[in-house]
Design goal:
Blueprint lengths: L8 E9 L3 H11 L3 E2 L14 H24 L14 H50 L5 H7 L4 H6 L5 H4 L9 E9 L3 H11 L5 E6 L4 E2 L6 E2 L1 E9 L1 H13 L3 E3 L5 H57 L3 E2 L5 E9 L3 H14 L7 E5 L16 H10 L10 H15 L3 H16 L1 H5 L5 H8 L1 H18 L15 E2 L19 E2 L19 H34 L3 H32 L5 H10 L14 H20 L1 H23 L2 H14 L5 H25 L2 H25 L4 H39 L17 H10 L1
Antiparallel strand pairs: 1-10, 1-11, 2-10, 3-7, 3-8, 4-7, 5-6, 9-10, 12-13
């Protein structure tokens, strides 16, 4: 496994007999080593050879999805049996059809029974609540008030009286009707509108009584549980009945009969209870039978689904192959790794033997100018880092892969911004939890955020380890310093006072009593001292510049390896060398001055040195001189930086133009020396295959590339200062939470206040520092790799190798379930 360059790929052609084509594709899918090309791009899916088979298995997939939904609704788990005694696909198709018909019939009968049961339940509620409503209505003022309203001779005329001019056109008044009523149930959300419409439609000539139902009722139409109320509407006349009936239908109010005689009411209640008991027994038997069917289906559902998916994928791949005129052979073209050829040839021989084919599949290599796909063989540790690179762009075939460097540089740059070994330990525990339980999490359907954390568990592991390392360097444990690696080199001015109780650190300053510095990392006495921020600012800012220049130089060096691998001397002489000179003549020299200043302990102003290196290169440096001969060295470096710009701009386009003219002239001579017909054909072929060369486009492209690199050298170096900024912000936030929350609460002796302060400190640490700050540092480290590092050498314009594999089908099934 080589992560530095992608696997060497080759385009192969397979000529397989028609009788063994299915087994051949199946065996190759189990290998997961070939990416087939579509040789029928002009044909629609319905015009391809195996369109009927694909359609058949698509229908089987639909039936299996229906079974899966039914099993999920029933709450039954689909077991994972061992894949033995695989059913024949023709038998499976017939069996799926029978099971679907049986299940649809069971569901239809169950729905009808459920609807009947719901209607009977509503009728039972009407009978129970209707008696109460009738009893209260009959005793309303001894029945006089209601009777006086409903027995009014003008009631029917009032109900049916036309509006406006229609009254003049009415010649015969309606006849007096007898008292009537309608009972039923209506959804509670519609009750107010229902009453209002009834009042308007009958012009107030009706009497409505309602009784709420305490429990939710299953609606017979929708099968959902809703709140309903029982109503009774008293009216007079047939026209009023017709209007009220239509309003009930419009509002989805179910009407039920209600007997007025007490004996008939008691008899009807008994009949309803008896029918409900019978329906419940029938429903229980139906549900038991349905669960048995679903259990049998669920036991083999995964096996059937994978079988159908594999067959559908095989025929979909067969549709990509070219069929010869005799229809006896199928021709396939596919990309595969060179190292996989022996495995592929062995699979082809086994397929021919198992299918009893008299002719073996012909396996031959095709030579093409098409760029192959990019393939890296990764494992569960390296795959996450490779995905970080691929998210920027899939690398061009066999160009240098930044993924192998990202394994170290990405978590390290993250840790520079996140340096705190207390927070690092918290991240480490989270990563170890994900790694230890990776088998359990791998078999579960996780949410989006949890799935990302699980996929990047090894990235988080290295981020945590490097955060602990940089935390030791910064000497910060939740912003608290510790003397872990030895004694401090400073002491209080009063020898009898300890550093912890000494106030000189924030006022007059401590005294350095030892020439031996603190063994590892920052001396703990710097934290809380009056010069803490100036010292840490200077250290972290210069460290960020050093790390940035080192990583950008690594990117430029990798561009040299790319140019050498692809035999591009032009890129070496006119891109790699001037870029290396320009970057190091300016910022490489700055890095050298930073290290030299640290070693000497001198106090020159590096800002002044770098600015006047360009503005006044011949002036005397004075106190800013760090080494002998610094002025002539700076003049030479400035000249190199100025020369590097036209070096990047002009020679490469001119050289490419010269090569193109020589190639075109040589091709023309070849045409003249040969025969008329053959060489003219070759000339036409050259014109088709040759790429157009526009000198203006090449020059403009090179100019853009040069300007981008020159400006990027400055902006990218400044961009690495985010390491300093985020590290400082993380440290200050941690110090604020510790000083202003935890220590503030600890000043009180009340244990409740201390407990609340500890809880708030833990919540702020987890929410802000361990989640938000982690995400922020991750994104900034991602930007530094994508923009500042990878743009020096990484084109990222390739396409990924996607082999035809049954393993992805199994993963898709797990994702679907």
């Amino acid at each position: 496994m080589d992560l530095f360059r992608s696997e060497e790929m080759v385009l192969v052609q397979l000529i397989m007999p028609a009788e063994s084509a299915h087994d051949t594709i199946t065996y190759l899918a189990e290998l997961s080593l070939l990416q087939f090309r579509d040789l029928n791009p002009g044909k629609s899916p319905f015009q391809r050879t195996y369109a009927n088979q694909v359609k058949r298995y698509a229908e089987m997939s639909r039936k299996l999805r229906f079974f899966h939904d039914q099993v999920a609704k029933a709450g039954k788990l689909a077991y994972r049996p061992i894949m033995e005694n695989v059913t024949n696909l023709d038998e499976l198709d017939h069996k799926l059809g029978d099971l679907e018909s049986e299940l649809l019939e069971i569901n239809a009968n169950n729905d009808k029974l459920q609807s009947s049961q719901s209607e009977l339940m509503e009728l039972k509620l009407v009978l129970q609540n209707g008696a109460t409503l009738f009893h209260s209505t009959r005793h309303l003022e001894n029945g006089q008030q209601l009777q006086s309203v409903l027995d009014d001779p003008s009631l029917e005329e009032s109900v049916s009286r036309p509006l406006l001019l229609e009254q003049e056109m009415q010649t015969e008044p309606t006849k007096h009707g007898r008292l009537g009523f309608i009972t039923g149930v209506v959804p509670k959300v519609k009750a107010l509108s229902f009453e209002r419409i009834l009042f308007r439609a009958t012009r107030g000539n009706m009497y409505l009584k309602q009784a709420p139902i305490d429990e939710l009722v299953i609606d017979p139409a929708t099968g959902e549980k809703v709140e309903k109320i029982v109503f009774v509407v008293f009216f007079s006349g047939s026209r009023a009945r017709t209007k009220i009936t239509k309003i009930c239908e419009a509002f989805g109010a179910n009407r039920y009969p209600f007997p007025e005689e007490p004996n008939r009411l008691w008899q009807m209640k008994s009949e309803v209870d008896e029918r409900l008991s019978e329906l419940q027994s029938t429903l229980d038997a139906g549900i038991y039978h349905r669960n048995n069917v679903l259990n049998n289906i669920g036991y083999s559902l995964e096996k059937w689904t994978l079988m159908v998916k594999k067959e559908k994928a095989v025929y979909h791949t067969l549709n990509m192959l070219s069929v010869d005129v005799t229809r006896k052979c199928l021709v396939a073209e596919a990309w595969c790794p060179v190292s996989a050829k022996p495995k592929i040839q062995d699979a082809l021989q086994r397929a021919a033997y198992d299918s009893n084919s008299q002719v073996n599949t012909i396996f031959q290599i095709l030579y093409t100018k098409e760029s192959p796909p990019t393939f890296f063989e990764t494992n569960k540790f390296t795959s996450a880092f490779q995905e970080i690179v691929d998210a920027y762009g899939v690398g061009r075939y066999q160009e240098a892969n930044p993924g192998c460097f990202t394994i170290i540089t990405f978590p390290f740059l993250f840790a520079v911004m996140f340096g705190d070994w207390g927070h690092g330990i918290a991240l480490l525990l989270a990563a170890l939890y994900l790694i230890i339980n990776e088998k359990k999490f791998g078999s579960k359907q996780l949410g989006d955020i949890m799935n990302m954390a699980y996929g990047g568990r090894y990235v988080i592991l290295l981020m945590a380890i490097f955060s602990i390392y940089t935390g030791f360097i910064y000497n910060e444990f939740f912003s608290v310093p510790f003397e872990i690696f030895g004694k401090s080199a400073y002491r209080c001015r009063d020898p009898s006072s300890s550093i912890a109780s000494c106030m000189d650190a924030s006022t007059a300053g401590l005294i350095k009593y030892s020439t031996t510095p603190y063994p590892f990392g920052v001396d703990p006495v710097w934290h809380g001292s009056r010069s803490e921020l100036p010292f840490l600012n200077s250290m972290k800012m210069k460290m960020s510049i050093l790390l940035g220049i080192a990583q950008m130089n690594l990117g430029i060096v990798l561009s040299y390896f790319n140019a050498k691998f692809f035999h591009s001397a032009i890129d070496i002489w006119y891109q790699f060398i001037p870029q290396l000179l320009f970057l190091n003549a300016l910022f490489g020299y700055l890095s050298f001055l930073i290290i030299l200043k640290w070693c000497q302990g001198s106090k020159p102003d590096l800002y002044h040195v770098m600015i006047y290196m360009f503005l006044s290169p011949t002036d005397d440096l004075g106190e800013n001189q760090l080494f002998w001969g610094q002025r002539p060295v700076q003049i030479v470096l400035v000249l190199l930086a100025l020369v590097a710009v036209p070096w990047m701009l002009l020679p490469k386009p001119l050289t490419l133009r010269k090569q193109h003219l020589q190639k075109a002239r040589g091709q023309a001579y070849g045409v003249l020396e040969g025969s008329d017909t053959e060489d003219l054909d070759k000339g036409k072929e050259y014109e088709v295959e040759g790429e157009e060369f526009e000198f203006s486009e090449v020059l403009v492209h090179q100019m853009i590339h040069t300007i981008e690199f020159v400006l990027g050298a400055v902006s990218n170096t400044a961009s690495y200062l985010r390491l300093w900024a985020l590290s400082l912000a993380h440290a200050q936030l941690s110090a604020v939470f510790y000083d202003r929350v935890l220590l503030f609460a600890w000043e009180y002796s009340n244990p409740v206040i201390r407990l609340v302060g500890l809880f708030v400190f833990a919540a702020c640490t987890v929410g802000v520092l361990l989640i938000m700050e982690t995400l922020s540092a991750f994104l900034h480290a991602l930007r530094l790799h994508w923009v500042e590092f990878q743009n020096k050498f990484y084109l990222g314009d390739g396409y990924k190798f996607h082999p035809f594999s049954f393993n992805t089908l199994s993963q898709d099934y797990e994702d679907d379930t």
